[in-house]
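Hi again,

Forgot to attach this to my earlier email, sorry! This is the prediction with protoporphyrin IX containing FE bound. I've pasted everything inline since the attachment limit keeps bouncing my files.
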Amino acid sequence: MAKLQGLLSAYASTVSPIILIGGLLVVWIVYNVVIVLRDPLRSVPGPFWARFTRLWYLREVAGGHFEKTNIALHKKYGSIVRIAPNYYSIDDADAIKTIYGHGSNFVKGKWYIASNNPKNKHPDLFTDLNPETHAVNRRNVASLYSMTSLVAMEPNAVACADILVQKLTEFANSHVPINLQVWLQYYAFDTIALITLSKRFGFLDTGKDNGSMIAALHSYLLYLSKVGVYHEWHYFLNWILSLLPNGGMHYMGSFMRQQVLEGQRQKSKSVLEKDESKPTDDFLTKLLRMHALQPDRFPMESVFSTCGTNIGAGSDTTSVSLAGILYHLMKAPATLEKLRHELDQAIEERGSSDILSFQEAQKLPYLQAVIKEGLRCHPATGLPMVRVVPKGGAKIVGRYFPEKTEVGVNSWVMHANKKIFGPDAEEFRPERWLESPERAAEMNRYILTFGAGSRTCIGKNISLLEISILIPELVRKFDFTLVDPNRPLEMENVWFVKQKNLDCYVSLRKGN
Ligand code: HEM
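Structure tokens for the complex follow:
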């Protein structure tokens, strides 16, 4: 009897886990079948596994090429594609207004949760999911990013462009190949630091990622792009990661703290309260004044998070965009020639070869068309900008989406749309912006490089300033040649779609 009991318990101990797992699997399958059968959107096409689990989307995002996958999905399945059980990617011109338009009640989806720092009591502008607090916070800082505020920022962009030109001249003389994307990162990081904190990180000077800060921001992007898909894990994973050493982020944090303290030393609370604000004040002075005048409404945490968001959201995005424009120019010699002709003429007419100002650059139509087209062909963000369908549901592409469904448009998908940009949408052709003002205005409505609506990029003017200062200067002064023109451009989509192998020879422009 004891033997039999022993046999039975041995049998039970080996079989029961299998039965348990099998049982759970059956329950999971039945649960999913019921969900699928009851889903009013069950007829929307998409990859098989995306119907049942977010793992399909996670795997694709982790692959680092979702911008390409997303375009291919819409080619295969049409305007609406399911990419996760309750999440749909949309490729439709009218959908932009419905989902992102001012006055639409679609709020940011939970994917953005993984971008926030759980330690912050007040979410930053980018990650705030609450439309009311977001609107208040955005209003608080909007004037710091306005066109008039750019006056104080222009000399910062010019100073950094000057250093980059000097460095590239040295590379041209030594005939050493460089990774242009990396140097554009140094420019973008140093410029946004100078604009925000009144001090450069010093990447342009050393030619190095000091303190591994750029690498740390890359790891943060790797994290948020994937953990956003399973946002429920963010707080736990973030806690685990906070136990590990993270030199780069600490470096950035202490750099920021030092500069803020320096700003406070230079201008005490009483001085800031009394001083009239001037458009020429630097960004940090403006932030510290806001805190001095209304410490409850704008606490020190908001001073730090605004600075941190500028650096996080405004560095890689700008370098990716600069690299996109220059890469396309390298691949299109006739366009480059035409652009140089316009720039040379502008320089000749004003009788000085000094760097073109932002205002001057804005008056050059071909330059503006090149920038616009570069930003269309390589928008910095490469995942759908997810939003939640509001109460009462919504009609998108003629189909009813129940409330709480998640939907999103990927800039790469929209910019490849042939109905909007024409049959040659995949080509880099700046002329499309100059064919007629009506056509340009129409296309402009569907450009998502800087997002759209109430959550549109607050730093757009700053990045356009940086781009408009640097591109003409580099195009006028240097020839860039790809080390291996036949090697396809490698990119990695970690929310920002970063170029990886932009290895080039730099030489001084012939005949310059
Ligand atoms: C070429 C450069 C840039 C590109 C392509 C870009 C792109 C974008 C996009 C697409 C969004 C919307 C994201 C979404 O809805 O999911 C966004 C938001 C944002 N960007 Fe930029 N950005 C750039 C530069 C900058 C700069 C220079 C700054 C700051 C100085 C900045 C700060 C922000 C912030 C704070 C938000 C959140 C705004 C809000 O939700 O109210 N960006 N950006």
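The chain has one domain: 94-508. The longest strand covers residues 503-508.

That should be everything now.

G.
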